[in-house]
Design a protein that fits this description.
The protein is an all-alpha fold. The protein has one domain: Ferritin, CATH 1.20.1260.10. 79% of the residues lie in helices and 0% in strands. It has five helices and no strands. The longest helix has 27 residues. It is elongated.
Length: 145
């Protein structure tokens, strides 16, 4: 894969990563009863929206179109959240679900950062920023376990 294609795939993967997190929060928020957890998820939602806007602006500047997560994936996320909270809507369970999703995102982003030498500087910076954000969110969510 040439460098340009590699960068396009990486930035699209980062976009999808942040978008999946945002979609998960959106699906989960109506199920949350704890006000502190709601505030945490709303803060995270704003953070993901900001990063998505930055990634989108970069992509627009490069003439790239963000590839959103498909309808099937969105439906799977929604149904997974609904099923898991139907049987256990506890604060601990909600925190655990969010942490698991965040760790998945961290793992994917870490793999991209480890290939940083293949990325343009601006793409690498956006990926690192998203990674650092997700690492912070993971730590913030642990207090709800």
């Amino acid at each position: 894969m040439d460098r340009e294609s590699y960068n396009e795939k990486a930035i699209n993967d980062a976009y999808k990563n942040a978008h999946i997190a945002l979609q998960s929060i959106s699906d989960l928020l109506p199920e949350v009863r704890d006000e502190k957890m709601k505030k945490e998820l709303e803060k995270e939602s704003k953070g993901y929206q900001k990063i998505i806007a930055e990634i989108s602006a970069y992509m627009k500047g490069k003439g790239l179109t963000p590839q959103d997560i498909n309808f099937f994936k969105k439906a799977m996320l929604w149904s997974s959240v609904k099923m898991k909270t139907l049987f256990d809507g506890s604060l601990n369970n909600i925190a655990e679900m969010m942490i698991k999703g965040t760790v998945t995102g961290i793992t994917e982003l870490t793999a991209m950062v480890n290939e940083k030498k293949n990325l343009d500087e601006e793409v690498a910076e956006l990926i690192v920023k998203l990674l650092e954000t997700e690492e912070k969110y993971e730590e913030d969510l642990k207090k709800f376990l």
